[in-house]
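ugh ok so i messed up the first submission bc i forgot one of the chains. this is the corrected input, ALL of the components this time, i swear. 595 residues overall. if the numbers dont match what u have on ur side tell me asap before i send this to the collaborators (the ones from the other lab, u know who)
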Amino acid sequence: MKVFNNKGDKSTKIGFGEGLLSAGSRNKNLVALGADITSSVGMNIFTERYPERFFSLGIAEQNCVGVAAGLALAGKIPVFSTYGVFAALRTTDQIRISVCYNNLHVIIGGAHAGISVGPDGATHQALEDIAVMRVLPNMTVLSPCDAIQTKLAVEAAVEKLNSPVYIRFGREPVPNFTDENMEFNIGKSQLLHPGSDITIFSTGHLTWHTLQAAYLLEKQNISARVINIHTIKPIDEQAIVKAAKETGAILTAEEHQIFGGFGSAVAEVVVKNYPVPMDFIGMNDNFGESGKPDELMKKYGMTYENIISKAKDLLKRKK
Amino acid sequence: MKKIEELTFISRQIRIDVVKSLAEAGSGHLGASLGLADVFTVLYFSVLNHRPDKPLWEDRDRLILSIGHVAPVLYAALANAGYFPKQELMTLRKLGSRLQGHPGRDHGLPGIELSAGSLGQGLSVAVGMALAAKMDKKLWKVFCINGDGEMQEGSIWEAAMSAAYYKLDNLTTIVDRNKVQIDGENSDVMEIEPLVDKWKSFGWDVLLCNGNDVSKLLKVFSKAKSLSGKPKVIIAETLMGKGVKTIENNYKWHGKVPAKEDVYDFIKQINNAYNF
Ligand SMILES: Cc1ncc(C[n+]2csc(CCOP(=O)(O)OP(=O)(O)O)c2C)c(N)n1
Ligand SMILES: [Mg+2]
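and heres the new structure output, hopefully the right one now
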């Protein structure tokens, strides 16, 4: 079985920008909307190359979403991005009605996902965006695991869909370990590591941690299946039900609130089809705070060590 | 009321504290924190009716910081006013600190009225406080600090409309008019002019002032105090990075901090600016 190696740390926001550039070079209808933080969300790679397809709208996120809806109705493919807290939450009603209810091909990029945003603190750490975006009808929610995959996610969002998409990505450089040739099919999960004792479903930055956890568990004779879920909605029900049946225990890992998030999405499938013991790695109903990214991941229990210990606890509950 | 020389001395100290705490933190927003040092000095050492030894004193004037990213200048002003020990400034943005990257009320730092950091929310909160004071016939006042880039948020104008409708003359907001924001000049990101006319047309008394001149700020606040019947906005013209010549008026310093080895030079520049 393939062992994934870190090809070098890279921020997923760079992948976002690269995806915009490549998709935008193939499709002249792609336009970008900025809300005063174009470079810290990675969009500058596109806007510098295609300034005539960039509209600066100021610090006015709600207006950005409405304008995006209008552009989409008139035949453009608008991409709007700012920090996830504002992209998804400041604008929720506009996304719900103007974008989702109209079922428009608007792409929303939520940057600065999770607590690894670090010293800016609670206000800037997006920990509720998955929950809010995935509950909206017509919305597709993508949460790629590294920079390469973020690029593929943007390309797929532009080229494979004709409906609303939310793409979540982070700020800190993280291990880049997938490769460009790995297929990115919206709605399809990725088996990264085989296993039979337990399945760990992970999304976003925590997928790297999850792989490390599985490699270490293997040394302790625990066989953990690792499945990367880059599409939180629509979720890959088949893979989840299969994992429940074959491994009998499921752990989920996300850099997001446990309530209503990715783990909840997996649990909805498990409970309905084949209930097995489950547990969740994520933020436990708290706001974040200032600190270094790794300190915060540790403090709030979102590292490979926490994955290992929760996996072991979960195994004890297996019938 | 303190003399102008005293206030000038304090504003210099606040600038130095801002530079030191941000360099130690390694991240944060230096530009507007320096630009607002004079406004914060005048507020905390002359205008506000407050008691640093009794932060929750019921009759205190309230200062709502809407632009949470300039937390470092708020913290430096509070520490210099005696709300907490000055050495705590060096914990800024560190794990477990009461000095969060953006102010967080539940972290227990005395003097913090509101958790903030999402732009465009503070003025609405200030309106709510001012309404409550009017209901209860209280004499305390509400002050708010807004940014000029922040004027682009629609919610600012919702708040403005409501404050005028309820004739909240116990509310004064200060707009930090440094003409820049993250992506560049305000006018290159999204034009906000004519700003004076906008506020006037929303029913506010509008005062313009050099926001980096302590004596002019004293005068404008006393003028604002004398006006009644409408909410008041002071458009304080400042320079991003004011006091450190080499970075002044450069939008790239919105969210940057000095390297530790540059602290000495930055402080030297500040002292030079004050002929100190
Ligand atoms: C709702 C919201 N959108 C975006 C941001 C990110 N942000 C923080 S400060 C800032 C620029 C604010 O401009 P201005 O008010 O002029 O402050 P200055 O750059 O002068 O410090 C932006 C866009 C935010 N904090 N909140
Ligand atoms: Mg400004």
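quick check: The interface with chain B takes residues 34, 36-40, 56-60, 62-63, 85-86, 90, 118-124, 287, 289-292, 295-296, 299 of chain A (CB under 8 Å). that seems consistent at least. Chain A has a mean pLDDT of 97.
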